[in-house]
Automatic annotation (TrEMBL):
Gene3D superfamilies assigned: Hexapeptide repeat proteins, MurE/MurF, N-terminal domain
Entry keyword annotation includes Repeat: yes
Origin superkingdom: Bacteria
A UniProt-annotated Pfam family: Hexapep
Domain UDP-3-O-[3-hydroxymyristoyl] glucosamine N-acyltransferase non-repeat region: 25-91
Species the sequence originates in: Psychroflexus planctonicus
Keywords, sorted A to Z: Acyltransferase, Lipid A biosynthesis, Lipid biosynthesis, Lipid metabolism, Repeat, Transferase
Name of the featured protein: UDP-3-O-(3-hydroxymyristoyl)glucosamine N-acyltransferase
Record PANTHER family: UDP-3-O-ACYLGLUCOSAMINE N-ACYLTRANSFERASE, UDP-3-O-ACYLGLUCOSAMINE N-ACYLTRANSFERASE 1, MITOCHONDRIAL-RELATED
């Protein structure tokens, strides 16, 4: 997320009431999670395991819970609680704006687009030409939708990321200040949920088709011309390259990449990157032919056990 203007380091430090290391006028352009940071961004880190990754990332401001040597060309914000302070920055620059009507006056809707009754369209939403939005769809603030997009009833675009930190008495949510971009010629079925990015954009690329009751987590990138069948769950920060097919009830863990042309057969669970144009099956999923051989071998176990008993 980029800020509306360039801020000085001391302004951000004052906002969250923390010490800083670096030039007071050091420029701060925005904030982002580690996987999408750019020069000028703030990134937070609160565990020693990830200090080096944050300090060596593209981020030029590191919100950290320990005084460490500051890398050249960077600045530090020293916080007792980087997670909570990151939330303070998020909500300051992206505070919730209550709706006053079903279709916001700030929404931009293209020619030929049909919006059925009982649709909610939030603030600063952009919808392209010749789209069809069926009843009871909810489109949260800031979502961008291209041309020739169809959204079926009950779908929600822009809910918060499922991202929490455990505290002694409760779970603290990492506030989501990102958005969603739906490109041209996408169709999304009924009762789907697509979460907005924490600081970046969850993106569904051109020509992808999504069945009913699919969950897509925060900051995912779904490539062009993908097919996603019903009851699929895709965890946050996952990348599907172009022409990936996920059949019913597939589960995808966070942060992996499914290579171009990957197919996952029904009820598979994948927890690692895939190879291009391969078909996978099982949980944990493996290449289809190898998994089918494993299944075939397992079915022979009762006969083998009985044979051993008979020969005993």
């Amino acid at each position: 997320m980029k800020f509306p203007r360039t801020y000085a380091l001391q302004e951000i430090a004052k906002l969250i009431d923390v010490e800083f290391v670096g030039d007071a006028d050091f420029p701060v352009l925005g904030m982002n999670e580690i996987h999408v940071v750019e020069e000028g961004d703030i990134v937070f880190v609160d565990h020693p395991k990830y200090y080096d990754k944050a300090l060596q990332s593209k981020a030029t401001v590191v919100l950290i819970n320990k005084k460490v040597d500051c890398p050249e060309g960077k600045a530090l914000l020293i916080s007792d609680n980087p997670f909570s302070d990151f939330n303070k920055i998020s909500t300051h620059f992206n505070s919730f704006q209550p709706a006053t009507q079903s279709i916001s006056a700030s929404a931009k809707i293209g020619e030929g687009t049909i919006i059925q009754p009982n649709v909610f369209v939030g603030n600063n939403v952009q919808i392209g030409n010749n789209c069809l939005i069926h009843s009871n769809v909810s489109i949260y603030d800031g979502v961008s939708i291209g041309n020739n997009v169809t959204l079926h009833s009950g779908t929600v675009l822009g809910a918060n990321a499922f991202y929490y930190k455990k505290r002694e008495t409760h779970f603290e949510r990492l506030e989501s200040c990102g958005s969603i971009a739906i490109e041209d010629d996408v169709e999304i079925g009924a009762l789907c949920s697509i979460d907005k990015g924490v600081t970046g954009i969850t993106r569904i690329k051109k020509g992808t088709k999504i069945d009913n009751q699919v969950q897509i987590g925060h900051d995912c990138v779904i490539g062009e011309c993908c097919l996603i069948a019903s009851h699929v769950g895709i965890a946050g920060c996952t990348i599907l390259e172009d022409e990936v097919t996920l059949w019913g009830q597939v589960g995808v863990t966070s942060g992996i990449t499914l290579a171009k042309g990957t197919t996952l057969l029904a009820q598979s669970g994948i927890n690692k990157n895939t190879e291009p144009n391969e078909t996978y099956f099982g949980s944990p999923a493996g290449k289809m032919r190898e998994k089918f051989k494993e299944v075939a071998a397992i079915t022979q176990l009762p006969k083998l056990i009985q044979k051993l008993k008979n020969n005993a």
